[in-house]
Structure prediction request, 330 residues.
Amino acid sequence: MFLNDYCYKVKRVNPVMLLVPFCFATALCAAQPYPAKPIRFISPYPPGGSNDIVARMIAQRMSQSMGQQWIVENRPGRGGNIGAELVAKSVPDGYTLVHGGMGSLTLAPFLSKLAYDPVRDFAPVTLTARAPNVIAVHPSLPAKSVAELMALARARPGELNYGTSGVGSTPHLTAALLLSLARVQMVHIPYKGSTPATIDLVAGQIPILIVPISSLLPQIEAGKVRALGVSSAQRSPMLPAVPTIHESGMTGFEMNPWFALLAAAGTSRDIVARLNTEVTRYLRTPEAAKQFAAQGADVASSSPDELLALMKSDLSQWGKVIRDNNIQGE
Prediction:
């Protein structure tokens, strides 16, 4: 009889009451200040590149300033698209972030089918860096400036070869815009990265190469190749004697690839604001400028809205360049 009474009372317990401890625990977790646990920081490129090293510098400083570890996780593949997709599909709680690049966020949509939308599926946090490209030639090529190189290409249409780090890469887009503005033709030789392309330029296997400055800086400083112009709007501190393409007669020319920090769409504004405040505080230090310069990058920062506006602008501008030059993804 006693057992039956007990079972009857248990059956009469309101099921909602059983959820109270769980709801209390959930509310307690939600009330904890962000971040309350380690942050997963996706580097969508292989270890050792400029984007990855900058991501690790940011992670190290944020681990100190925010009181939780930022754990860098490399997820390379498809030009950064795999890592970007992982974050786009993650829970929007601020605990999974990506150090994205211009390629996977504003070029890739025109070159391949993506499982994410760069505007709809991310919550922009801040720009982190810019890494301009450089146009360089083998010393045997009789061109001492971008203007002379374009004149040479005009005199020899379709005869000059130029290398880049791959189809649809920012160096390839730099070349496409330059050749379009100059109305000249050269033959594109895409490589699987900057390293093999640099080796062939130094060996004289290709006469012209466009790659990030950091990839060629040692060879330029050693006099093994000749730098003609940089793609940014201002001269690079790494190559202060080398003019910009804009200065070389291509008025208004700019291709200044960028890196940025993003979270998944739906991440709360408070979390995005906290991340922006902490990261930009570091980016504005002399230490960050010095560390980034060693990787061939210039420090950059922005508000979330400024980053979103940049992404939309680049999608429009470079989408047109890709279409006009009939550039197809590999």
Q: What stands out?
A: The mean pLDDT is 90.
